[in-house]
Amino acid sequence: MTANHKDQVLAALRACGVREEELGGDLTSRTPLTGDSLLSVPRASREDVAEAIEAADSAFKQWRDVPAPVRGNVVKRWGELLTEHKRDLAILVQAEAGKSMSEAEGEVQEMIDICDFAVGQSRMLYGKTMPSERPGHRLMETWHPIGVVGVISAFNFPVAVYSWNTAIALVCGNTVVWKPSEMCVLSALGAHSLLARAVSDCDAPADIHRLVLADRTAGEAIVDDPRVALVSATGSTRMGKEIAPRVAQRFGRYLLELGGNNAAIVTPSADLDLALRGIVFAAAGTAGQRCTTLRRLLVHNSIADSLVPRIADAYGTLTIGDPRDESVLVGPLVNETSFNAMQQALQDAEAQGGEILCGGKRVLADEFPNAFYVQPAIVKMPAQTEVVQAETFAPILYVMTYENFDEAIEMHNAVPQGLSSAIFTQDQSEAERFLASSGSDCGIANVNIGTSGAEIGGAFGGEKETGGGRESGSDAWKAYMRRATNTINYSGELPLAQGVKFL
Ligand code: NAD
Q1: pLDDT per residue as tens digits for the range 306-315
Q2: In ligand 1, which atom is closest to the CA atom of 291?
């Protein structure tokens, strides 16, 4: 099985255009499916990172002057190649992130979608024209590229989040240096090689995108380099807290996409069949390893006894195992550290008054002694204690009840993170109150949909300890550009603003 898997991964890498000389080294990729090592890649040193930034900085000086719709051609070609190699890249994503094939292909589809979006955006980098207060003057804003964008990404979406940043950054006229998760270096090589082919097919400068494969030290080198105009970092809140002050110290820009602690409120009027499906996918899908995973369920007292046992029953039907079997819905945790963190959280929850209603145990340990498959857990909590306040990156759903709607909103917002949120209700007034300024304080607020599975058309990101950044669709492109305000005087006079007289 393992030898076949390695062969399959190698074939997928080759199909994506990865060359032999890009493999071999001391940074080894391990698959969470079995815990076995797959292939190794050379580890980038700090000097390699500096060289990549230098090359991307120099390519920027050419790329910024290429018309934006022409820059869009590279991203268009990348989207075509991603479409052609969707399965190949999904095989790499599945091997390293442990997702089902449907979710791994969904991740690549997200890349294709953002390419489409970015190509359109390349013709819509609009600036405003405002009425000037002075006669014979024109006042307007123009948008310009900023330079090298350093992209640091997490293991759980090894390629999609990178593509959100890269597709938009490139059409905006920036160049990109990418430091992917050290756990997903093969997926990174595959995605990067397809972009390299698109760049070459379009005769664009080769160094508009560079890849550095290493652990966090390479991330730190990007963070500290003054030639990196924007650091776009996705990962834990711990990582964001380390990065933000270092970038701010050198007056660089940062865009942070950090941890979530997402909740759903279920009100008495909710369609419980629909809520059930939304909750189970959001809480147990991807084995709880999405930033938008549902971690807290706030259920009205009157329906808790009917809804919660149904969720537990549905959990009992979930197929857990190696997701290369297409009937499997829940794959492994990424590694033993993640498993231990889950066990610790469950112990802490019990110590803080919680009751484990189902799940939490390791399964398939005999078959996969080096991989960590777990039953998704549901834990009834008396309150949002310390353990509920933290993001444990594993499938634990904490269930709490509420009595009135205001209390539900208060509980909803009473955590440090602010990424995604949902309400299940048929009451329009409750839905509107949830979406109002005094409702959910998150970057994403949904009605009758779970917390996970966002579309690329909307801006993606969250508030508070989630970092405040926005990526992907809507006007998120503005974070990758600088704005200039221009005043043009065609009057032949020199009237000063605010009626000031001088000379
Ligand atoms: P992580 O924080 O351990 O690592 C993320 C990336 O940051 C890796 O590439 C890592 O090498 C790098 N890194 C870590 N510390 C660094 C430092 N001090 N300086 C520079 N780089 C550093 O996260 P992970 O375990 O890979 O991913 C899971 C986390 O990511 C979860 O908290 C999840 O919620 C979060 N996440 C957030 C989003 C979002 O959009 N909000 C999306 C995906 C994942």
Answers
A1: 999 999 999 9
A2: 34
